[in-house]
Design a protein that fits this description.
This protein is mainly α. It has one domain (2-128). The chain has 6 helices and no strands. It has helices spanning 2-31, 35-43, 46-71, 75-95, 106-122, 124-128. Helix 4 (75-95) runs antiparallel to helix 5. The longest helix is centred in the first third of the chain and has 30 residues, at 2-31. The two termini are 16 Å apart.
């Protein structure tokens, strides 16, 4: 029984990492291509478009942080993941200056970090608890 339990937990850990990597790739793509902006502008007027894009920044990083909490790595690596999320926010905003119809904004980086903080607040037990490998 213990042996099969270990196999299940290894499978779930690998699945969590696979989902995290897919989300990271999809979120990066969404932030670094003009298609989401074109779709937003085709569907919404100026004010709702602006509000929706800001909500998406917060929600995207909130989800990214929650997914990161699901990984439950050893404690020192948790802080590396949070550093990665922060650098991802800065990096994608910086790179947006090279993408047509995208504009970099420190305000958006701030909103990204609001999403990170909200994600931490929601999943704080995952971030402060024992790692999955130690449990």
């Amino acid at each position: 029984m213990e042996r099969s339990k270990g196999k299940v937990s290894v499978f779930l850990a690998r699945l969590a990492w696979a989902v995290w990597i897919l989300y990271a790739a999809a979120w990066s793509w969404a932030l670094l291509t003009p298609q989401p902006v074109r779709l937003r502008d085709a569907l919404l007027d100026e004010t709702p478009a602006l509000v929706s894009s800001k909500v998406v920044h917060v929600a995207g990083y909130l989800a990214f942080t929650m997914l990161s909490g699901c990984l439950r790595p050893a404690v020192p690596y948790r802080w590396l993941i949070l550093a990665f999320l922060s650098l991802h926010a800065f990096g994608t905003e910086y790179l947006q200056q090279f993408v047509p119809q995208r504009t970099p904004s420190l305000h958006d980086v701030g909103l990204d970090h609001v999403g990170i903080v909200l994600g931490l607040a929601i999943t704080w037990k995952w971030w402060l608890g024992t790692s999955a490998s130690a449990a």
